[in-house]
Amino acid sequence: MKQKCLVTFSLFIYSLGLLFGQASYFPLGHDIYHEVNKLSPDQRTNIHIAARPYSRKSVFNLFKQVLSDSIPVTDAHKIQYFLKDTIGHIPDTGGKGFLNHFYKNPFHFLEYRSDDFSIVLNPILNFRTGYETETKELIYQNTRGLELYGDLDDKLYFYSAFFENQSNFLNYIVPYIDTYKAIRGQGNYKDFSSNLFSDLDGYDYSNVQAYLGYKLSKHSILELGHGKHFYGNGIRSLLLSDSGQNYFYLKFRVQVWKMFYQSIFSELSTVSARYATGSDVLSKKYMASHFLGFKLSPELEIALFEAVVFSRADHFEFQYLNPVVFYRTIEHMIDSPDNVLLGFNISWSPAHSLSLYGQWIL
Q: Taking the complete model, does pTM exceed 0.85, yes or no?
């Protein structure tokens, strides 16, 4: 374990001297993904739709290109609006904002841009309530958080966000929590009872996401972070979905010509933290994955996926760190018992308002 951390840290530090410009990502679930997927296939040629999240820089380049084409005025206004959320890639709006400092950009509470760096700070407040129609039980969510992201010297980009939550859920969600001792997409939780309202109870949980990345060359990046990814089209994926908890990862990505390649090495927990007792640390397992996408045409995109999930009692399997090796051959070489996934993804957009896609996994 110590050796793995040392190697990971060394690779990350070594990359410092080799880097040039990049940008942070739009969080998974952001409205921007719907807007990108609504565009016609020939307009979104610089984005591989099946690999999320999308970087702010790639979305900026896409929207600027779309605005130069002939599109409906209503869509143009919406795209122009979303361009304001691509920090560091548009001119200052020149607005005075609130008290001359806050919300100069309607997307950001506090924002600063210069030739050397860009930074955004957003407080997060989300309170909503309703009730279960069958049981008349109160359903609510109370979220407070903070989001900070930006870039430095057009070389380094970073993102950090923390959310603290108290909430109750609809009846169809509670059995899942009771069975797996986990809230989908969240971390550890504890039972919650309000000090103000005696009949108000539910779950108390937090969520954190952060990453720090560099661009190794014009077309490649290296990134260390705590978050999650998505491979595929639609809401869920057989290959790699975003319904689980955030995880620690090291990511290498190349995007050039019509090709997209990404390799992720991640550390996962085997069970929910609710199963831990006392000061016990959860047992770990690891995943190494490759995703290779190729645009055969603006309308047709295919991708191959490979992953191995493994654990070792006393060491990390360093042979899986090779980002371009075929994992099945490594397994045969070391006679491993590890779990292997092989997958295929395809998406076809024959018309502006129609998209067909599917997956196969072994």
A: yes
